[in-house]
Amino acid sequence: MAEYLIKNGFVFDPILGINGDKTDVAIKDGKIVESTALSNPKVIDAAGKTVMAAGVDIHAHVAGPKVNVGRNFRPEDKLFTYEAGNGVKRMAGGFSVPTVFRTGYLYAKMGYGTVMEAAMPPLYARHTHEEMRDTPILDQGAYPVFGNNWFVLEYLKNHELENVEAYISWLLRTTRGYAIKIVNPGGTEAWGWGLNCNSIHDPVPYFDITPAQIMKGLMEANEALRLPHSVHIHTNNLGNPGNYETTLETFKLFEGAKANNDFGRKQVMHHTHVQFHSYGGDSWGNVESKADAIMDYVNSHDNMTIDLGCVTLDETTTMTADGPFEHHLTELNHLKWANTDVELETAAGVVPYIYGKNIKVCGIQWAIGLELALMAKDPMRVFITTDHPNAGPFFRYPRVMKWLMSKKAREAEMDSLKWAEKVRDATFLSGIDRELTLYEIAAMSRAGTAQALGLSSMYGSLKPGLQADVAVYDYNPETAEDPELIEKAFGNAAYLFKGGEVVVKDGDVVSNGNKKTLWVDVKVNDNPQVRRDVTEKFLRYYTVTEANYEVNEKVFMKNPYRIEVDATQ
Amino acid sequence: MAKIVTDVVCPFCGTLCDDLEVKVTDDNKKILEVCNACVIGTEKFLHSQAEDRLKVPQMQDEEGNWKEVSIKDAVEYTAQTLCNAKKPLMYGWSSTNCEAQSVGHEIAELVGAVVDNTATVCHGTTLIAVQDVGVPSCTLGEVKNRADRIVFWGCNPAHAHPRHMSRYSIFPRGFFTGKGHKARKMVVVDPRSTDTAKMADVHLQLEQGRDYELLSALRVALRGAPLPETVAGIPRETIQDVAATLKSGRFVIIFFGMGVTQSLSKNHNIDMAISLTRDLNEYTKAAIMPMRGHYNVTGSGQVLGWQFGFPYCVDLSRGFARYNPGDSTSNDLLRRGEVDAVFVLGSDPGAHFPISSVKKIAHLPSVCVDPHHTPTSAVCKLHMPVAFVGVEEAGCAYRMDNVPIETRKVVEPPEGMVSDEEFLKMVLKRVREIKGVA
């Protein structure tokens, strides 16, 4: 493989503590190495440019059944977006729900190398993997959903933690999943009857267990299994005025818990798209930001991480395993509503949504997403996302970075809102002067996410030995003044190296790379009861047989990469 | 001696039963017996064993005389036909696996073809309706475990999806449905007295083509608003009773078929049926599901979706994907004479398209990839016989509820026979050579 030496760039790497120094980055055999290890490298002159590890996205809905529902039921989403194939590129289109090809190309153009699919219904694992297999360039993994799974509900109700662990091990292996995702715990099962759990203490119909018990139990199992990632939570009561109390109650469940793993992960709980969970007030008339209360808590508890879920003020397509929420949303905006309930496991809904600048609430949502980041004390624990495509499409990350890095840019956006003054009254944003640095952005978009995923030995830094995923942006931090340059540069990487290969050059995709699909294989002691229960459930309640459930790596995955964990002790 | 292959997936209809057991000879060459399948599924497996099965590609000259050709010649003819055409139609894709569909899409992109699947004459109207109003649905296991109000509208599973009622909808005892069919109410809406209708608790024998009115009337009845004395030939009191029955259920499911999708009003019928389902969700839990026909027509829509963003009739001829039912749909293209070559795989338009369309196929350079002699193969210039997916070749297929299942290879195909995917890969390679792309 070719050797590369990226010279003279401004390097930002929170893991190595490099903050804008001009340092060389050396690449050999797909890894980052000391520059002394190179013999005859191609030299890339990065003078006047910014160099970082490639981006790592911890939460985006980019592959799987609900994503494809979004594509197929919104032909209008393709309007004016299609580009013909060219060179290594296939034809690709779509705005809020791009085709798999466009997803890969656009992430690569932003200098991202790794993207985690945030919710995989186990019964549809094959579909999720087929889409990831066809998504070029990106290393990916998917989180199976556990928070409404009948096995989990029954075992936790009976306090059988060992059985939960054995079942998690089995399901991660069978679906080739990466981590434990929890979406509206209990509420989505209740949705099977058209009901919901609105607080973390609402008992789940029939199963008679509370969301709090589900989340806490799964966290304990996660730590006992010593998995690379923590539990990944979307708690109850999403998107409702006053819901910040539910969010804080959820956070408090994990007080005092310590991470237990060999992957360098420090948190026991990741809470996703917190913007949707930080609302005060008691109606849409008086909804207000509670980012202060939320971030006070996050800042003072270092055993948790969050991602933002920034609203980008676009027309988009919402999709979540929170089935009852999507029903609630369609009642609100009266747009088309798709829903799929999945036997024994979960559900999902999809509704288009327009975050309009003329709507006060949308402006408040936009402000809250940014406030969370701007109030963060530790950028290694607070990550940039748009919960793609729920709060906005992922290719708006450069715009979010612009808002976070420039008070001028966000004030200009604020002024363009119809109800700017009302939005200011209900939020803190205009009172915040902080402008994030590139060092902090690097933490929030790669170093921190890689660490939270337990992947800091592969991604997120330019430390020798890591996979050579490197992004070079045409952005000079010493001279750039116009905030628009941030958005432009971070949306059109000058270079993206993926596994040591040039994938993007001058903002154009030149290779489809050699993607990997990550999954976690955790070994536990043989558990005959769980084996028996699995067989029983398949015989009686599933509509596929047990033998037809497992994902076949050879057919459905590209370059499967198994991360082994031994939890037999 | 013989052995039993278990958990076999049936490659016939959208029910995609995956509990078949097939007895095969020890050398994996011959199927001896098929268990658990319905009579149609059994036939599909056994038919692959026919002694007179076509094994070698055939080409037809202008006088209609057939001669055998090599696979290499078949690949060459197919690649040249597709490359020389300005706007070829690549139709079918519903009786093959997703892997073959994927390769087909790559070819279509290179040659600028229109890719269309059998939804175009089947549930395409459903797909349009879903784009209008969405679709609240569920997997078949939710029906089995929860549903107590089952509606079959314009479909006849007793004949078209023979194991549907026993596996999923009427008879199974699920988690919350321990009494099986005794605790379920079955409503059938059909102008005919079908074998399914005869099993129903209520058979609404409506006037033909009046589905839209009856669906609207049910929505009115749900709201308790006044109705005329009869709607679509059904008395007001009956409609109100059915509305009350649905409302009182814990979980309502509406299955619908070609009786509503391809009769008068087409997609508007489905708009209304979906809206009825939405309305029911105000009172209880309700879902709706199309009874998809071919075992992997659903998969074709899915693969097209994630690769191009549209579920059927995708026109790639301009270099980017375009979707415009009525314009880019197969029959419209054929009858307007807008396509100059036809490639068919995994379907039989000769049997299902109007004769005016089939005549056009007969006059165009055309390829039919199909294990059987079919009315389509009879009018095409090249007939390329292939292995049976799901019998002699594995691969992914999507059930009517979009659940993907990997079909199994049960026996070896006859010697020298290739699969859909293998054939398409050879064509793709040749197309790349002709087009001069890497």
CATH architectural name of the largest domain in chain B: 3-Layer(aba) Sandwich
Largest sheet of chain B: 9 strands, mixed
Across the major sheet of chain A, the strand order is 3-2-7-21-22-23-24
- What is the end-to-end distance of chain B? 49 Å
Task: For the record, give the distance between the C-alpha atoms at the N and C termini of chain A, rounded to a whole number.
Answer: 41 Å
Describe this structure in words.
The complex is a heterodimer of chains A (569) and B (438). With 569 residues, chain A is α/β, with parallel strands linked by helices. Chain A has a single domain (53-452), classed as TIM Barrel. In chain A, 32% of the residues lie in helices and 21% in strands. In chain A, the strands form seven sheets. A seven-stranded mixed β-sheet of chain A has the order 3-2-7-21-22-23-24, covered by helices on one side. Chain A has a five-stranded parallel β-sheet with strand order 11-12-13-16-20, sandwiched between helices. In chain A, helix 4 packs across helix 7 (211-225), helix 11 (360-374) crosses helix 14 and helix 12 runs antiparallel to helix 16. The termini of chain B are far apart. Chain B is globular and about 65 Å long. Chain B is α/β, with parallel strands linked by helices and 438 residues long. Chain B has helices at residues 39-47, 71-84, 98-111, 124-133, 140-146, 157-160, 164-169, 195-199, 211-222, 236-247, 258-261, 267-280, 297-308, 330-335, 349-352, 355-362, 375-379, 420-435, and strands spanning 2-8, 20-25, 31-35, 58-60, 66-68, 88-92, 114-117, 134-138, 149-153, 185-189, 202-204, 230-231, 234-235, 251-256, 285-290, 314-315, 322-323, 341-345, 366-369, 382-384, 395-398, 404-407. In chain B, strands 5-4-20-19-18-6-7-16-17 form a nine-stranded mixed β-sheet. Chain B has a five-stranded parallel β-sheet with strand order 11-10-9-14-15. Chain B has a three-stranded antiparallel β-sheet with strand order 1-2-3. Chain B has three domains: 2-47; 58-121 and 295-435, Rossmann fold; 124-290, Dimethylsulfoxide Reductase, domain 2 (3-Layer(aba) Sandwich). The longest helix of chain B has 16 residues, at 420-435. Helices cover 37% and strands 21% of the residues of chain B. In chain B, helix 3 packs across helix 13, helix 3 (98-111) packs parallel to helix 18 and helix 4 crosses helix 12 (267-280). The chains are: A alpha/beta (569), B alpha/beta (438). The interface between A and B is large, with 62 and 63 residues. Strand 18 of chain A pairs parallel with strand 8 of chain B.
